[in-house]
Amino acid sequence: xxxxxHSEKREGSRVLEAFxxxxxxxxxxxxxxxxxxxxxxxxxxxxxxxxQYEVDAAKRAIEELNAFYQNVATQWATPESRVLGHVVLxxxxxxxxGYTEDWAIIEIDTSKVDASNFEGNxxxxxxxxxxxxxxxxxxxxxxxxxxxxxxxxxxVRLEGTIPDEEMxxxxxxxxxxxxxLMVLKRGNTTGLTVGRANNVFSYARNDYAETSKEWAIxxxxxxSHAFSKTGDSGSVIVDGLGRIGGLxxxxxxxxxxxxxxxxxxxxxxxxLKRMQENGLRELNVNPVSFDDQPLV
Length: 296
Hints:
The protein is an alpha+beta fold and about 300 residues long. The protein has one domain: Thrombin, subunit H. Helix content is about 30%, strand content about 20%. The protein contains five helices and twelve strands. It has a six-stranded antiparallel β-barrel with strand order 6-7-9-12-11-10. It has a two-stranded antiparallel sheet with strand order 1-2. This is Serine protease. InterPro entries: Peptidase_S1_PA.
Protein backbone atom coordinates (compact mmCIF):
# COMPACT_ATOMS: atom_id res chain seq x y z
CA UNK A 1 0.00 0.00 0.00
CA UNK A 2 1.54 3.30 -1.00
CA UNK A 3 2.39 5.81 1.68
CA UNK A 4 0.41 9.07 1.70
CA UNK A 5 2.25 12.19 0.67
CA HIS A 6 4.24 14.02 3.38
CA SER A 7 1.90 17.03 3.13
CA GLU A 8 -1.08 14.87 4.06
CA LYS A 9 0.88 13.47 7.00
CA ARG A 10 1.61 16.95 8.29
CA GLU A 11 -2.01 18.03 7.80
CA GLY A 12 -3.28 14.97 9.62
CA SER A 13 -0.90 15.62 12.49
CA ARG A 14 -2.10 19.20 12.83
CA VAL A 15 -5.74 18.08 12.90
CA LEU A 16 -4.96 15.47 15.54
CA GLU A 17 -3.00 17.97 17.64
CA ALA A 18 -5.83 20.50 17.38
CA PHE A 19 -8.34 17.87 18.46
CA UNK A 20 -6.21 16.86 21.41
CA UNK A 21 -5.77 20.47 22.47
CA UNK A 22 -9.51 21.14 22.27
CA UNK A 23 -10.28 17.95 24.16
CA UNK A 24 -7.72 18.75 26.84
CA UNK A 25 -9.09 22.29 27.12
CA UNK A 26 -12.62 20.99 27.50
CA UNK A 27 -11.48 18.58 30.18
CA UNK A 28 -9.70 21.37 32.04
CA UNK A 29 -12.74 23.63 31.80
CA UNK A 30 -14.93 20.85 33.13
CA UNK A 31 -12.42 20.26 35.92
CA UNK A 32 -12.40 23.94 36.85
CA UNK A 33 -16.19 23.97 36.88
CA UNK A 34 -16.22 20.92 39.12
CA UNK A 35 -13.66 22.49 41.42
CA UNK A 36 -15.76 25.64 41.65
CA UNK A 37 -18.89 23.66 42.35
CA UNK A 38 -17.24 21.59 45.04
CA UNK A 39 -15.27 24.43 46.59
CA UNK A 40 -11.76 23.30 45.62
CA UNK A 41 -10.90 26.79 44.36
CA UNK A 42 -11.17 29.13 47.40
CA UNK A 43 -9.95 32.14 45.42
CA UNK A 44 -12.67 31.64 42.81
CA UNK A 45 -15.33 31.32 45.50
CA UNK A 46 -14.09 34.45 47.23
CA UNK A 47 -14.16 36.38 43.95
CA UNK A 48 -17.70 35.17 43.22
CA UNK A 49 -18.87 36.14 46.71
CA UNK A 50 -17.23 39.55 46.41
CA UNK A 51 -18.88 40.24 43.06
CA GLN A 52 -22.22 39.01 44.39
CA TYR A 53 -21.90 41.38 47.35
CA GLU A 54 -21.25 44.29 44.98
CA VAL A 55 -24.25 43.32 42.85
CA ASP A 56 -26.49 43.14 45.92
CA ALA A 57 -25.17 46.51 47.13
CA ALA A 58 -25.87 48.05 43.72
CA LYS A 59 -29.43 46.70 43.80
CA ARG A 60 -29.98 48.19 47.26
CA ALA A 61 -28.55 51.52 46.10
CA ILE A 62 -30.92 51.55 43.12
CA GLU A 63 -33.88 50.88 45.40
CA GLU A 64 -32.81 53.65 47.78
CA LEU A 65 -32.23 56.06 44.89
CA ASN A 66 -35.68 55.33 43.47
CA ALA A 67 -37.24 55.95 46.88
CA PHE A 68 -35.26 59.19 47.22
CA TYR A 69 -36.39 60.30 43.76
CA GLN A 70 -40.01 59.66 44.64
CA ASN A 71 -39.60 61.69 47.83
CA VAL A 72 -37.99 64.61 45.97
CA ALA A 73 -40.56 64.52 43.18
CA THR A 74 -43.50 64.60 45.59
CA GLN A 75 -42.21 66.65 48.54
CA TRP A 76 -39.57 69.03 47.11
CA ALA A 77 -40.71 69.72 43.55
CA THR A 78 -41.46 73.46 43.84
CA PRO A 79 -39.06 76.23 45.00
CA GLU A 80 -41.42 77.04 47.87
CA SER A 81 -41.22 73.48 49.18
CA ARG A 82 -37.40 73.73 49.31
CA VAL A 83 -37.35 76.66 51.73
CA LEU A 84 -35.93 75.25 54.98
CA GLY A 85 -36.17 78.36 57.13
CA HIS A 86 -36.05 82.14 57.38
CA VAL A 87 -33.49 84.67 58.57
CA VAL A 88 -34.62 86.13 61.90
CA LEU A 89 -31.52 88.17 62.78
CA UNK A 90 -28.66 89.51 60.64
CA UNK A 91 -26.65 92.43 62.06
CA UNK A 92 -24.68 94.68 59.66
CA UNK A 93 -21.21 93.47 58.74
CA UNK A 94 -18.65 95.39 60.77
CA UNK A 95 -15.56 95.04 62.94
CA UNK A 96 -17.34 95.37 66.25
CA UNK A 97 -15.08 95.22 69.29
CA GLY A 98 -12.15 94.36 67.05
CA TYR A 99 -13.54 91.13 65.54
CA THR A 100 -15.25 90.73 62.17
CA GLU A 101 -18.99 90.48 62.73
CA ASP A 102 -20.59 88.64 59.81
CA TRP A 103 -23.27 86.22 60.97
CA ALA A 104 -26.99 85.50 60.86
CA ILE A 105 -29.57 83.42 62.72
CA ILE A 106 -31.89 81.21 60.67
CA GLU A 107 -35.02 79.69 62.17
CA ILE A 108 -35.54 76.20 60.76
CA ASP A 109 -39.00 75.12 59.63
CA THR A 110 -39.28 71.87 61.57
CA SER A 111 -41.99 70.56 59.24
CA LYS A 112 -39.38 70.32 56.45
CA VAL A 113 -37.01 68.04 58.37
CA ASP A 114 -37.61 64.51 59.61
CA ALA A 115 -37.11 64.92 63.35
CA SER A 116 -36.97 61.15 63.88
CA ASN A 117 -33.49 60.87 62.32
CA PHE A 118 -32.04 64.28 63.20
CA GLU A 119 -28.75 63.63 65.02
CA GLY A 120 -27.51 67.18 65.46
CA ASN A 121 -25.01 69.31 63.57
CA UNK A 122 -22.13 67.40 61.99
CA UNK A 123 -19.39 67.66 59.36
CA UNK A 124 -19.32 64.99 56.66
CA UNK A 125 -15.68 63.95 56.17
CA UNK A 126 -16.37 62.55 52.71
CA UNK A 127 -13.89 60.26 50.95
CA UNK A 128 -11.35 62.61 49.33
CA UNK A 129 -9.00 62.30 52.33
CA UNK A 130 -8.58 58.71 53.47
CA UNK A 131 -9.28 57.79 57.08
CA UNK A 132 -5.59 56.96 57.58
CA UNK A 133 -4.31 60.28 56.21
CA UNK A 134 -6.92 62.35 58.05
CA UNK A 135 -6.13 60.63 61.35
CA UNK A 136 -2.42 61.23 60.78
CA UNK A 137 -2.98 64.90 59.95
CA UNK A 138 -5.22 65.56 62.95
CA UNK A 139 -2.85 63.73 65.31
CA UNK A 140 0.60 65.20 64.49
CA UNK A 141 2.17 63.56 67.52
CA UNK A 142 0.06 60.73 68.93
CA UNK A 143 -0.84 60.12 71.61
CA UNK A 144 -1.81 63.46 73.09
CA UNK A 145 -4.56 65.02 75.17
CA UNK A 146 -7.19 65.25 72.42
CA UNK A 147 -6.81 62.32 70.02
CA UNK A 148 -8.86 62.40 66.84
CA UNK A 149 -10.74 59.18 66.16
CA UNK A 150 -12.14 58.68 62.67
CA UNK A 151 -15.92 58.15 63.02
CA UNK A 152 -17.29 54.97 61.48
CA UNK A 153 -20.07 56.93 59.71
CA UNK A 154 -17.70 59.73 58.57
CA UNK A 155 -19.66 62.32 60.58
CA VAL A 156 -17.82 64.56 63.05
CA ARG A 157 -20.57 65.69 65.40
CA LEU A 158 -20.24 69.20 66.77
CA GLU A 159 -19.96 69.21 70.56
CA GLY A 160 -19.08 72.26 72.63
CA THR A 161 -16.67 75.09 71.86
CA ILE A 162 -12.90 75.59 72.06
CA PRO A 163 -12.08 77.82 75.07
CA ASP A 164 -10.30 81.09 74.28
CA GLU A 165 -7.50 80.08 76.63
CA GLU A 166 -6.84 76.92 74.62
CA MET A 167 -6.85 78.88 71.37
CA UNK A 168 -4.03 81.04 72.71
CA UNK A 169 -2.25 78.24 74.57
CA UNK A 170 -2.81 74.91 72.76
CA UNK A 171 -2.36 71.79 74.84
CA UNK A 172 -1.34 69.57 71.90
CA UNK A 173 2.22 69.19 70.61
CA UNK A 174 3.30 68.54 67.03
CA UNK A 175 6.20 66.34 65.90
CA UNK A 176 8.61 69.18 66.74
CA UNK A 177 7.21 69.45 70.28
CA UNK A 178 5.67 72.81 69.44
CA UNK A 179 2.16 73.64 70.73
CA UNK A 180 -0.41 73.35 67.96
CA LEU A 181 -4.16 73.15 67.49
CA MET A 182 -5.22 71.11 64.47
CA VAL A 183 -8.57 72.10 62.98
CA LEU A 184 -10.72 71.16 60.02
CA LYS A 185 -13.59 72.57 58.03
CA ARG A 186 -15.77 71.58 55.09
CA GLY A 187 -16.30 74.52 52.75
CA ASN A 188 -18.43 75.15 49.69
CA THR A 189 -15.37 75.63 47.43
CA THR A 190 -12.52 73.55 48.82
CA GLY A 191 -14.44 70.83 50.63
CA LEU A 192 -12.69 69.17 53.57
CA THR A 193 -9.34 70.69 54.57
CA VAL A 194 -7.05 70.48 57.60
CA GLY A 195 -5.12 73.41 59.02
CA ARG A 196 -3.10 74.67 61.96
CA ALA A 197 -4.67 77.33 64.13
CA ASN A 198 -2.27 80.12 65.03
CA ASN A 199 -2.19 80.93 68.74
CA VAL A 200 -1.28 84.55 67.93
CA PHE A 201 -4.35 86.46 66.70
CA SER A 202 -3.86 88.52 63.55
CA TYR A 203 -4.96 92.02 62.58
CA ALA A 204 -6.36 92.58 59.09
CA ARG A 205 -7.55 95.64 57.19
CA ASN A 206 -10.34 95.40 54.62
CA ASP A 207 -11.08 97.49 51.53
CA TYR A 208 -12.91 100.05 53.67
CA ALA A 209 -9.82 100.71 55.82
CA GLU A 210 -11.43 98.92 58.77
CA THR A 211 -9.07 96.96 61.00
CA SER A 212 -10.25 93.77 62.66
CA LYS A 213 -8.76 91.12 64.91
CA GLU A 214 -8.87 87.59 63.47
CA TRP A 215 -8.26 84.00 64.51
CA ALA A 216 -5.70 82.89 61.91
CA ILE A 217 -5.61 79.40 60.36
CA UNK A 218 -2.56 78.25 58.38
CA UNK A 219 -2.37 75.40 55.83
CA UNK A 220 -1.47 71.96 57.20
CA UNK A 221 2.11 72.29 55.94
CA UNK A 222 4.18 73.99 53.24
CA UNK A 223 3.24 71.34 50.67
CA SER A 224 -0.51 71.29 51.23
CA HIS A 225 -3.11 73.41 49.45
CA ALA A 226 -4.82 76.44 50.96
CA PHE A 227 -7.07 75.86 53.94
CA SER A 228 -9.78 77.94 52.23
CA LYS A 229 -10.64 79.84 49.06
CA THR A 230 -13.25 82.32 47.91
CA GLY A 231 -16.68 80.84 48.53
CA ASP A 232 -15.79 79.09 51.80
CA SER A 233 -16.91 81.99 54.00
CA GLY A 234 -19.34 80.94 56.71
CA SER A 235 -17.81 77.50 57.18
CA VAL A 236 -17.57 76.32 60.77
CA ILE A 237 -14.04 75.49 61.96
CA VAL A 238 -13.71 72.71 64.54
CA ASP A 239 -11.01 70.70 66.27
CA GLY A 240 -10.64 66.92 66.36
CA LEU A 241 -13.24 66.61 69.12
CA GLY A 242 -15.85 68.49 67.11
CA ARG A 243 -15.59 71.58 69.30
CA ILE A 244 -16.45 74.77 67.42
CA GLY A 245 -13.64 77.32 67.21
CA GLY A 246 -15.16 79.94 64.95
CA LEU A 247 -16.71 80.92 61.63
CA UNK A 248 -14.59 81.49 58.54
CA UNK A 249 -14.78 85.09 57.31
CA UNK A 250 -11.96 85.56 54.78
CA UNK A 251 -8.26 85.25 54.10
CA UNK A 252 -5.18 86.83 52.58
CA UNK A 253 -2.32 85.93 50.26
CA UNK A 254 0.99 87.46 49.25
CA UNK A 255 -0.30 88.13 45.72
CA UNK A 256 -3.87 88.35 44.36
CA UNK A 257 -3.12 85.52 41.91
CA UNK A 258 -1.88 83.13 44.62
CA UNK A 259 -3.83 80.79 46.87
CA UNK A 260 -4.89 82.09 50.27
CA UNK A 261 -2.11 81.28 52.73
CA UNK A 262 -3.81 82.65 55.84
CA UNK A 263 -7.48 82.03 56.62
CA UNK A 264 -9.32 84.34 59.02
CA UNK A 265 -12.12 83.35 61.37
CA UNK A 266 -14.17 84.98 64.11
CA UNK A 267 -13.98 83.12 67.46
CA UNK A 268 -17.20 81.43 68.52
CA UNK A 269 -17.00 82.96 72.01
CA UNK A 270 -17.35 86.45 70.53
CA UNK A 271 -20.23 85.38 68.27
CA LEU A 272 -22.18 83.83 71.15
CA LYS A 273 -21.63 86.99 73.19
CA ARG A 274 -22.98 89.17 70.37
CA MET A 275 -25.99 86.89 69.90
CA GLN A 276 -26.88 87.25 73.55
CA GLU A 277 -26.51 91.01 73.32
CA ASN A 278 -28.97 90.94 70.40
CA GLY A 279 -31.64 89.26 72.50
CA LEU A 280 -30.93 85.55 72.03
CA ARG A 281 -30.74 84.36 75.62
CA GLU A 282 -30.98 80.57 75.32
CA LEU A 283 -28.23 79.53 72.93
CA ASN A 284 -27.52 75.92 72.04
CA VAL A 285 -24.76 75.08 69.57
CA ASN A 286 -25.22 71.33 70.05
CA PRO A 287 -28.85 70.51 69.21
CA VAL A 288 -29.66 66.81 69.11
CA SER A 289 -33.41 67.19 68.63
CA PHE A 290 -35.86 69.88 67.61
CA ASP A 291 -36.90 70.20 71.23
CA ASP A 292 -33.43 71.66 71.89
CA GLN A 293 -34.20 74.84 69.91
CA PRO A 294 -31.40 74.33 67.38
CA LEU A 295 -29.15 77.24 66.51
CA VAL A 296 -28.03 77.34 62.86
